[in-house]
Amino acid sequence: MTTYLPTLKQLQYLVALHEHGHFGRAADACFVSQSTLSAGLRELETLLGVTLVERTRRVVRFTALGDQVVAKAHRLLREGEELSALVQAHGAPLSGELRMSVIPTIAPFLLPRILPRLRHERPSLKLFLREEPSAAAVESLHHGRADCVLLALPFATGEVEAAHLFHDRLLVAFPKDDPRDPPQSIAPALIDEARLLLLEDGHCLKDHVLAACNRPELRASASVIGTSLHTLVQMVDNGLGLTMLPEMAVKAGILQGTQIVARPLESEHASREIALVWRKNSPRAEEFRLLATELATP
After folding, report:
1. Residue range 9-18: average pLDDT?
2. Fold annotation for 88-163+278-296
3. What b-and-e string marks burial along 226-247, b requiring 16 or more CB atoms within 10 Å of the CB?
4. Whether the predicted pLDDT of 255 surpasses 80
5. Residue 1's pLDDT is what?
6. Which CATH architecture has domain 167-272?
7. CATH no., domain 8-86
8. Could you give the dihedral angle defined by the CA atoms of residues 262, 267, 269 and 275, in that order, rounded to the nearest 10 degrees?
9. Residue ranges of the HTH lysR-type domain (predicted)?
């Protein structure tokens, strides 16, 4: 008896539809027409002899079996990509395509300094960048949408390997001429919880700041409203409070044009670890370690 196996392309269509919940958006993500994607999914269901997706005019709903097939499809697609990566790894190091997710509190401050040199020294490397919060970036890694992630630790990453790049100090930022401005560093006890502005949930920097301060009342009292570090800087510059910034952002000039002072936080854990992580047992592990070395070079 002949056994007909699903193609990786059909599984890619299925995973994209599950991720986007819409045929048009899934087709765009796969760079095909909506009719091509729909036909591929119908062929897959016919091949398997089951219904994976319930289609209505307004809703795309996966069956219970469809959800199970999607979970398996993620693993098969990742294995297919790692097979290709295994072959590629035997060629020139850091060449070909590489998809890297970067968190928003790193991307605009580190990448402009690193990428020109990387393009010059590694011209055959095609680096595709995706900026997303830590949780989404880690999910992209485990689902095969990203090959590696540049993020800040500690953070729950699951089964990964990591390469340390450097430590990034946390600085307290507040309006110039503040009467409580100390000459050098600021102790966590001096931070007014009613004035502290933090990034909204989903940004790991918020958790790093609260952990560094080690003051439980800050978690309940701080205003968690900033969508980006640039937004927080503008709020502080307008006298609405104080915040904490990673040193890399200050060195990159985020405070230029403002009346804001930044002082080191006086705490045992007043820094975050910048690291590159990738899936455990990836055949491109040596390439990622080499990339980490490149990213860590001043």
Report:
1. 89
2. D-Maltodextrin-Binding Protein; domain 2 (3.40.190)
3. beebeebbebbbeeebbbbbbb
4. yes
5. 42
6. 3-Layer(aba) Sandwich (3.40)
7. 1.10.10.10
8. 20
9. 6-63
